[in-house]
Each structure stands twice: as structure tokens, then as C-alpha cells.
Amino acid sequence: MTADDTTLTHLRLERPAEGVAVLTLDNPEQRNAMSDEMTSSWVRAVDALAGDSTVRAVVVTGEGSAFSSGGQLDWLASEPDASVDRLRGRMMPFYRAWLSIRRLEVPTIAAINGPAIGAGLCLALACDLRVAARGAKMGVPFLKLGLHPGMAGTFLLPDAVGPAVARDLFLTGRLVEGDEALRLGLVSRVLESDGFREQAVAVAAEVAATAPVAAKLTKAALRDGGHGSFDHALQWEALAQPVTLATADLQEGIRAVQERRSPRFEGR
């Protein structure tokens, strides 16, 4: 799939730097709400990226002033008389479609350019890293709509910020931004709004420049809060580190240090 692929609706896939792919939610008139067309395009794009060995980091961002306002309200309210089973049958495919970003082996970065609300923030939480533009608002105000949280938010948010902060954000529905979001651990960096996209791509390029095998194994090690115990971590590392010791990239990395240059990793 290429940047000029015409099969995508409300979504763009671009390759702005070596090893970096950018998925842009592109429905700014509706603040990048997750339309049916966008959802279908998202699944196809993630499938394409999963099969592309040249991709080493993926950025998710929004077009215009918002990252994503989440699910479309008219879609959520479209079947007031439907049974719980019928509604569950609608929601589960929606969740699985958007959370498919988690099956990518390469590191993923949510570049939160503007408001990330509800399911929009859950999408950002499904990524490995989150960077935000200064002033971008984030929150999970599901309860203010009379709605239980969805899209694995009750797992993803506590994993990012801890259970006490997650309770605060869910039960009050309040929005946070900037330094508070950084302090809470909701994001790892706050970047200036001017040139935000370029700065986010630069972060992804840093990730893409690391050794691919080591990056994938490290992502796996840190997934879902990391290992269940100290001993599990040691057992994993005693296997994963020798895997990387056996790679050509390890030899290249050592030569690069000795020769005082940047390494050129090939993923082997």
C-alpha cells in the first residue's frame, strides 16, 4: 500500500522517512470521528503495514485540529431499541478493528495533535508511545454521555497512568493537557504545536534507526505492563538477549561505536 492508495477513505498512509509509516485520521470536518469508512480503511492499512518488512515504526495522528473525537455519536445512538446482544455484536468488531494496531510488531507512536477524546484516546493508549502537542486535550468522558467506557479503555488507561489516576479520569470525565498529562504518564513528551508533525516523525525516525530485532523483542517484553515477576523478566531476557547477540546488527552496532558513527541496521 502506498501513500497515493485510493482505496482508503477518511485515512491516509504515508512514508515520510526511511522506515517510518504515518497513518493520518483524515475526517477533519467531524474531528476525525471513527466513521464506518475510516474503520474499514484502518483495518486494511494495518494489515498492509503488518506485512511490510521495511516498516520499523508507525505514527498515528489526526488531520486538522483534532486527533480524534472518538466514536460517532449518531452511530452510538442509532439503535435505541436494539437488544444488548445485538449492540454487543456491533461494538466488538469496532473495538477489534481499531485495536488491531496492537498486533504490529514494530513500535507505534500516537502523535496527539489535538483533542483525543473517548475512543480516540483509547486508540492513542493502544500505541506504545504517546507524544502530544502543547494544548492538546485528552480525556475519557464516557460517563458524561451515560456510557460505560469501551475499546479496552478500562485496561489501557490504568496500564498507562495507574489505577488511582484512571479512576479519577473515568469517574470525573475531566480533560487534561500539557504538563499535567506528562506528569500523569498519559504522554511521554509534550512538543510545541508549530512543526508538531515533523517533530513526531523525528521521534519515530529515532525509533526506526534502532536495531529492528531488538526493538521488536523489547516491545514484546514491555507489553501490557511488562513481566509478571522479576524471575519472568530474567527468564525472558536470558533468551531474548542471546537472540540479539547472534544478529549481524549486534556486530554492526559495536563497529559503529568503535568507529564513532551512526549504525546501519538491517534487521538480521
Automatic annotation (TrEMBL):
Catalytic activity: a (3S)-3-hydroxyacyl-CoA = a (2E)-enoyl-CoA + H2O; a 4-saturated-(3S)-3-hydroxyacyl-CoA = a (3E)-enoyl-CoA + H2O
InterPro entries reported for this sequence: ClpP/crotonase-like_dom_sf, Enoyl-CoA_hyd/isom_CS, Enoyl-CoA_hydra/iso, Enoyl-CoA_hydra_C
Keywords: Lyase
Entry superkingdom: Bacteria
Tagged with keyword Nucleus: no
Listed Gene3D superfamilies: 2-enoyl-CoA Hydratase, Chain A, domain 1, Lyase 2-enoyl-coa Hydratase, Chain A, domain 2
Family from the record: Belongs to the enoyl-CoA hydratase/isomerase family.
Annotated protein name in UniProt: Enoyl-CoA hydratase/isomerase family protein
Species annotation: Nocardioides malaquae
Taxonomic lineage of the native organism: Bacteria, Bacillati, Actinomycetota, Actinomycetes, Propionibacteriales
